[in-house]
Amino acid sequence: MACPHCGGPTGPWSGYLRHLRDAELHRIFVPRVRCRRCGRTSALLPWFVSPYRWDSVDVIGRALELSVAGQGVRRIAAALGRPETTVREWCRRFRATADALARVLLAAAIRAGWSSFELPTATGPRCLAAVDALASAWARRHGPVGVWRLAALVTGGAWLAPNTTSPLASSGISPVMARTTRTTPGGAPCHRTPPKPSPSGGTT
Ligand SMILES: [Zn+2]
To answer: Ligand 1 centroid to 175 CA: how many Å?
Structure first.
């Protein structure tokens, strides 16, 4: 992988364990790479993992679909078995990024051969249409795909990033590498980063 910051060559740099929830709770290993030019490290997140979030992108995407369909946070949280605060945070970030996300995904869908004249004008439905458009264009060439996984992959994990600035504004050198770079204290390889909040109540 090229470094997402400077484009330099990278090499393996240990990794860390983290939790991931879908129907159950998993522990997964996330490998890191370190840039040989600028020295920064980056995590190589699988495409079903969103940076700093406990839940798989499939779960979060399902919540957003229900929200766009008009369901309230309480009902969505009950349906998916997630805390209301967590679902509210997903929906809040989606409202903030849906417009930019729709543009990025539609551009990718068009590059993949998708074309249509019918798109919803409202931001939320248009973004969902963009997610489906990209997935359908992809599926014609490569077979079935998890629609939200593809959206996460194309945006380098930035589709629902909890940043305050728009995570989709910059054009990263390596769009498929998640922007989760952190400087490791002391410059030593980070073998086991302790999981952050408790999976039961965290809003990450
Ligand atoms: Zn670099």
So the answer is: 14
